[in-house]
Amino acid sequence: MTTFAELGLSPKILAAVDAAGYTTPTPIQAGAIPHALERKDVLGIAQTGTGKTASFVLPMLHLLEKGRARARMPRTLILEPTRELAAQVEENFVKYGVNHRINVALLIGGVSFDEQERKLERGADVLIATPGRLLDHFERGKLLLTGVEILVIDEADRMLDMGFIPDIERICKLIPFTRQTLFFSATMPAEITKLTEQFLHSPARVEVAKASTTAKTVTQRLVKSAKKPWDKRAVLRDLINAEGDELKNAIVFCNRKMDVSELFRSLVKHGFDAGALHGDMDQRARMTMLSNFKDGNLRILVASDVAARGLDIPDVSHVFNYDIPIHAEDYVHRIGRTGRAGRSGKAFSIITPSDTKHLDAIEKMIGEKIEWLDGDLSTLPAQEETEDTSRRGGRNSRGKNGKKPRDGKDHKEKQTQPRNAEEKTADAPVVTDISAIDAPQPVLPDNVSLGTVVAQEPVRPVPHKNGNDERRQNHTQNGQQNNNKRHRRDFDDEPSPLGFGDDVPAFMLIPINI
């Protein structure tokens, strides 16, 4: 059996590894470290949880023992897809580089630019960064990449999923052609293969496990559930309670950030010790939540796929896929959070009738059928589907605004009813002789002809016992005043009055005692 001493590492590194409690390298470490020490390009393919991080951290420490860093010119560069992975790699350098005097700079989002720039000014032997923040510093003129000797691209398939490949291509063109490149990935889709052909030169290929396979130490089971969210949450709670004391801690994966928050609140409401982790959280909150879970202060962590890749939490006993992942490769990474370093673990996936397509893709990729815990989807109660279908039918039978369409008979009857008082009198006889209408006629003074209006005292309404008659009379008087205004505007042949004329407001006629 190979030991770390046989890999050619320096005594300082061997002492740090021994202090960390490791004696035997993993297959990926035993295969990649010797090639990296010879300054060859390495293409490492291994499933998650097999020690890929140490397979490039240890040889980099060995090669960095000679030389020193210059301001704004890092000697090595490590690209990571997420902030959590970048911070984890920094922790590995601190742990294994305890006997070295090297400067490590971390460039990730959510941290002040000024603090990161001060680290670059002091000179960085190791620069760990996410692609976006790295390019931000470069465009500000605070970073030079012409001194990079070793480039590490970690979790390359995750970089592809997150859309970082164009940024990586740009960064690779800014780094000297003579660099050494260490390329690590858990899966090798066609796009990643083209990238390795473009930027790696005669790499040593180290593949210790079949691409896209799951660890044999993880027990996988499928659990049926109806599609309704409250049913899925109930199934998850039953699974957690059924595991009892065997469940030390668990990560529950959701596909959407909104579902992470919703499920987290539900678990807390039902008395579970839970926390949440997703990409929209503040960086300090994310690191605090992850630290509490690692330290055992949280038993259940509800997370998005931000926690699915590369996070080194050694003793996770359970993984629950509350949502089945859309991409089959993500299933491998999710359940890889448990069963690490030779430990055993359990992974449960909640499956609804609409998840069969994604489940088939996962089983095809891993090359095996996953067992059902308590019967497959065919054993779901028949009323679940019937009730759901009837509810959907009920919604579809409604109108555009969610209202039921009016019955034709009722609608026809409503149309036959008169809409207002005018329709009620529509059948009344029509009066053609205006003199037959019994209505009061306006009386004009002798010196006033039609079209001429004189100022008159306003007619005060006489109170009536019937309020409707009073309101009708007020309405008639208002109509007469409006007619007077129209006459004054259209037929005013008299000279314009001075000031208010005869229409002086009453409040201006009140005498004032001086």
From TrEMBL:
Sequence motif Q motif, residues: 2-30
Record-stated family: Belongs to the DEAD box helicase family.
Taxonomic lineage from the root: Bacteria, Pseudomonadati, Pseudomonadota, Alphaproteobacteria, Hyphomicrobiales
Residue ranges constituting the Helicase C-terminal domain according to the UniProt record: 239-388
SMART domains cross-referenced by the UniProt entry: DEXDc (SM00487), HELICc (SM00490)
Basic and acidic residues bias: start-end ranges: 404-426
Biased composition (Basic residues): 392-403
Top-rank taxon: Bacteria
TM region positions: none
Domain Helicase ATP-binding: from-to ranges: 33-206
Boundaries of every DEAD-box RNA helicase Q domain copy: 2-30
Location of the region described as Disordered in the Swiss-Prot/TrEMBL record: 377-429, 452-504
Molecular function terms from GO: helicase activity; hydrolase activity
Keywords: ATP-binding, Helicase, Hydrolase, Nucleotide-binding
Protein's UniProt name: DEAD/DEAH box helicase
EC number per UniProt: 3.6.4.-
